[in-house]
Amino acid sequence: MSVDMDAFIREMPKAELHVHVEGTLEPDMRLQLAERNGIELPYQTADELAASYEYTDLSSFLALYFSGMDVLHTEQDFFDLTYAYLQRARAQNVVYTEMHFDPQAHTSRGIAFDAVIQGIRRAQETAQTELGIRSQLILGILRDESIESAMQTLEQSLPYKDWIVGVGLDSDEKGNPPLKFRNVFERARTEGYKLTMHCDHLQENSVEHIRQCLDTIGVDRIDHGYHVLDDEVLIEAVRQRQICLTFCTTSTPSNPAPRRAIGLKAALELGLNVTVNTDDPAYMRSYYMSDVLLNTQQAAGLTREQVAQLARNAFRSAWIGDDEREGYLAAVDGYMASAG
Asked: For residue range 16-72, what is the model confidence (pLDDT) as tens digits?
């Protein structure tokens, strides 16, 4: 029996490849953790706190994002944060997710790397057992910090290599091109990590940054990557190599959702390996995967097959083994057959 598009999207098995676990810190949990850790916030309710999340560009967004982390102190805090995201994701039929985390934002505050990753890992294991959602971690390097800090963070991760699947580059792109961290990512590659880097929308030298990712760093994936569409050479390179682009189509002040969705549809029609993701849902109207995918479908007029292609792209691009991948793809195909 045929189901309507809303139900079709919500019930479809999905993967998410680009979400920052710290960006899932919902206002109510932020207030709870502030009270737990003796931190005073100038807000009495979650609604008041959410109403303060106003930003106009990447820099003003990052100020909100990093200030929100001040309530995260203990291993239990990181467990609670991560488990809450995995609960919300699983409720929207996300069965697999790769989460970025930003340890430098915590170690710079005196929080031990061990406390961060052990809390997250315990939540991952608990959620896989209790909820049936599989997850992996991507170590985020803050590009507006020093090269020395980046290398130190990479080295701190090495005892936990079995818990981390890849290394990414995020935060403020202005004056911080991929080449700045070439040596760090070369080391990460030798340690067996997969590589990805953020190349966000409307940033300084966006096209050049993408070119550096492809030609010099040799990334396995590009986070965001909208400006691939601005250059025919990049389009062809990404298409030939089937580099995954992790578009995040939630509305932002500088790039409203319809514009992002239309760009995503164009990328699909060009044969690019594009996916839909939530990025930092707690700061973006609490839109999680089904909500973002439905909004994208409506804004771009995507067909069911195009929506299913986005789901397949995510599972095909996930950093997992072939047997696991085939299982997920079979689940999508089975769902398509049953949905009518």
From this structure: 999 999 999 999 999 999 999 999 999 999 999 999 998 888 889 999 999 999 999
3-state secondary structure at position 141: strand
Enumerate residues 6+ apart whose C-beta is below 8 A from 56: 253, 254
- Structural tokens at position 166: 């890849």
Task: Specify the 3-state DSSP secondary structure of 160.
Answer: helix
C-alpha to C-alpha distance for 291 and 192, rounded to whole angstroms: 34
Contact between 96 and 134 (Cβ < 8 Å): yes
pLDDT tens digits along 223-239: 999 999 999 999 999 99
In order of 192, 264, 309, 331, the CA distances from 317 in angstroms are: 17, 16, 12, 16
Other beta carbons within 10 angstroms of residue 69's beta carbon come to: 19
**Residues in contact with 181: Cβ distance below 8 Å, sequence separation at least 6, in sequence order:** 141, 143, 147, 150, 169
Is the CB of residue 96 less than 8 Å from the CB of residue 289? no
